[in-house]
Design goal:
- It is a single chain.
- This protein has 113 residues and is of the alpha/beta class.
- 29% of the residues lie in helices and 17% in strands.
- The chain has 5 helices and 5 strands, in the order βαβαβββααα.
- The strands form 2 sheets. Strands 1-3-2 form a 3-stranded parallel sheet, with helices on one face.
Amino acid sequence: MKAAAFAYERPADLDAALALMANADGMAKIIAGGQSLGPMLNLRLVEPDLIVDISGLSELKQAERSGDELVVGACITHGDIEDGRIPDVTRGAMQRVAGAIAYRAVRNRGTIG
């Protein structure tokens, strides 16, 4: 089966993404890596009017360490964690767990949020 027709937007920044979502009257879905939403679209389990692609938003690709806490942006991928591109407050546990998720292609696209 194929996805039903929908509009697609790839906003340039977080404010534009939030505006698109606010104007969609609840009929929009956010896509980042597509590992979950893609199959649901193809099976027509969801039929949004609009897909908002947040994968290019730099604001959501940041990770910040504050003491023992780590704030991870929604577009950080499992591959980012596995490759050590974000701070690790777990002394390697996050990298080991991320490296065991599915296979590399999924880790490159699959996001945290």
